[in-house]
Amino acid sequence: MARIYGDDKLKLSYDNVVKFFEDRARKSAVVGDLSAVIYQDKNPELAINRDIIEKKLLLPKLGIDQSSIVFDAGCGTGRWAQEIIPYCGQYYGADISNGFIEIASKKFKSYKNAHFFVSPLWERKILSKGFKGICTHALSFGVMIYMNDEELKVYLDILLHLMSEKALIAFREPIGVAQRLSIIEHFSDDMEQEYNAIYRTELELFEMIDSVFNHSGFSLKESGDVHSAALSNRSDTKQKYYIYQR
């Protein structure tokens, strides 16, 4: 189909989203684990630079230590897990892709504090995995664009139920700069595969988060751009981060 601006009625197909990530997992053998999740198949140097800058910016803001219990939503191949697992108490990584979880599980099999499982992030079975109400940190990096609005609300509610009384939730999310952008069954020349996503505006994201986090004790402590203009190759979308704490 196409890239469609402003229409909030368009919906993502679950099957298409899963297929995309399983294809990415298979492609990781060719393009590497990093490009497989940053989507720079034809520009690996850009993937490396984005990864370095994102981690340099966000990692110090998380405050991870040996007492931390971390939920990594959409953990992928373990891009952030490698920065967290050696330094935290317990780590739980979830992803919709079997292929990604297989890669991450093998990569970190020597760590007894690392736990990986396959699940859509909006399925409440996550709350039965043994870490409900005890997480000190949650990482939600680039996952909300693959959810429809109703799924996103459930996901945010699940995050709330996972968190301990004193906790931090870090979001890093691509947004639509001027208006909502829905990408439906659009063939990406960069990745040479079909892509589906919803880039909400910052206002839409705030309204969605606030509607769920209201009276939870969580408040926005910090936000900003992740990348400079030099590392952003799109004019209609950009990467933002939001740190919520209670």
UniProtKB/TrEMBL annotation:
This is Class I SAM-dependent methyltransferase. Gene3D superfamilies: Vaccinia Virus protein VP39. GO terms for biological process: methylation. SUPFAM superfamilies: S-adenosyl-L-methionine-dependent methyltransferases. One of its GO terms (molecular function) is methyltransferase activity. The keyword DNA-binding does not apply. Residues 70-136 form the Methyltransferase domain. InterPro entries: Methyltransf_25, SAM-dependent_MTases_sf. Keywords: Methyltransferase, Transferase. Coiled coil: none annotated. It comes from Shewanella putrefaciens (Pseudomonas putrefaciens).
